[in-house]
């Protein structure tokens, strides 16, 4: 399960789970020209597109094939490789998010219409739901939550999954169950992206250890190095950053309220001693907070 690109399957039948794309009634077809590929990336780009075709992710369209939707690809160098992403921003404006059907593989009629992309060589059509499509992340999130439902000590967010346990044996049993569930559903993992047997790990800005949770060192450092604020936009940005770690800050809501007043459109931005004190307090008030089942804790808001 650590090789190739997976396809979401029904574990009982082994058949791919299909998904459906819906467009709004007023959606208008749009065909965009291909983005140019830098000369030094041409060989790598063509090789990667051929790999996508080989893996069944895409297929080349037939010459002269009439299309009603086509979106450009974006090519970005990534070390010795090239990162290829779809720019569906224009087509996504006509897409509907009201009906979500879990799955990754798209039926013929849908991908012919909406998931065609342009390249300098030929057009390509997606065999699977493209990651840049407006409903693709919604569908993936919903499906992965269904797959991992009922497994204790597992937290998934987007394509990241955190697995824990009270001890090593319990952790290993949970890990085995997660890998089995993913494999049964036809999903694969990139081994170089996985970490096993860690005594501590950072997950979306939070550091998990055997003793409890704390804000990540990187988040704390970024907060403490934040410079002086001189505009409403700067205050909003600061509050968003510190708000992510509000669970670790005593009386966060009361302190932040003093700065939030500055962001109101009806008020003129004016920085004074009170605002400076609140700013300094938030920067320096991060404390280690452990979430232990046997430890008392105080909920502050």
TrEMBL record:
<dbReference type="InterPro" id="IPR000477">
    <property type="entry name" value="RT_dom"/>
</dbReference>
<dbReference type="InterPro" id="IPR043502">
    <property type="entry name" value="DNA/RNA_pol_sf"/>
</dbReference>
<protein>
    <recommendedName>
        <fullName>Reverse transcriptase domain-containing protein</fullName>
    </recommendedName>
</protein>
<dbReference type="InterPro" id="IPR043128">
    <property type="entry name" value="Rev_trsase/Diguanyl_cyclase"/>
</dbReference>
<dbReference type="InterPro" id="IPR050951">
    <property type="entry name" value="Retrovirus_Pol_polyprotein"/>
</dbReference>
<dbReference type="Pfam" id="PF00078">
    <property type="entry name" value="RVT_1"/>
</dbReference>
<feature type="domain" description="Reverse transcriptase">
    <location>
        <begin position="159"/>
        <end position="207"/>
    </location>
</feature>
């Amino acid at each position: 399960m650590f090789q190739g690109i997976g396809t979401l399957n029904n574990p009982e039948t082994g058949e791919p789970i299909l998904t459906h794309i819906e467009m709004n009634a007023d959606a208008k077809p749009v065909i965009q020209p291909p983005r140019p590929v830098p000369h030094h990336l041409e060989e790598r780009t063509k090789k990667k597109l051929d790999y996508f075709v080989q893996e069944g992710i895409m297929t080349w369209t037939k010459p002269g094939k009439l299309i009603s939707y086509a979106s450009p690809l974006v090519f970005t160098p990534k070390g010795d490789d090239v990162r290829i992403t779809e720019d569906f921003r224009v087509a996504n404006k006509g897409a509907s998010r009201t009906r979500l059907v879990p799955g990754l593989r798209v039926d013929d009629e849908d991908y012919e219409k909406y998931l065609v992309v342009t390249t300098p060589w030929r057009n390509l059509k997606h065999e699977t739901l493209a990651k840049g499509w407006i409903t693709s992340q919604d569908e993936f999130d919903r499906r992965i939550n269904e797959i991992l439902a009922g497994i204790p000590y597992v937290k998934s967010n987007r394509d990241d999954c955190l697995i824990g346990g009270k001890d090593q044996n319990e952790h290993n049993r949970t890990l085995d169950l997660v890998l089995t569930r993913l494999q049964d559903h036809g999903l694969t993992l990139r081994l170089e992206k996985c970490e096993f047997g860690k005594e501590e790990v950072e997950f979306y800005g939070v550091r998990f250890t055997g003793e409890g949770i704390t804000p990540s060192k990187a988040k704390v450092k970024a907060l403490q190095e934040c410079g002086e604020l001189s505009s409403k936009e700067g205050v909003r940005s600061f509050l968003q950053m510190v708000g992510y770690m509000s669970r670790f800050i005593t009386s966060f809501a009361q302190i932040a309220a003093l700065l939030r007043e500055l962001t109101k459109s009806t008020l003129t931005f004016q920085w004074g001693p009170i605002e400076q004190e609140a700013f300094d307090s938030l920067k320096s008030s991060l404390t280690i907070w452990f979430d232990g089942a046997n430890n008392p804790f105080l909920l502050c808001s």
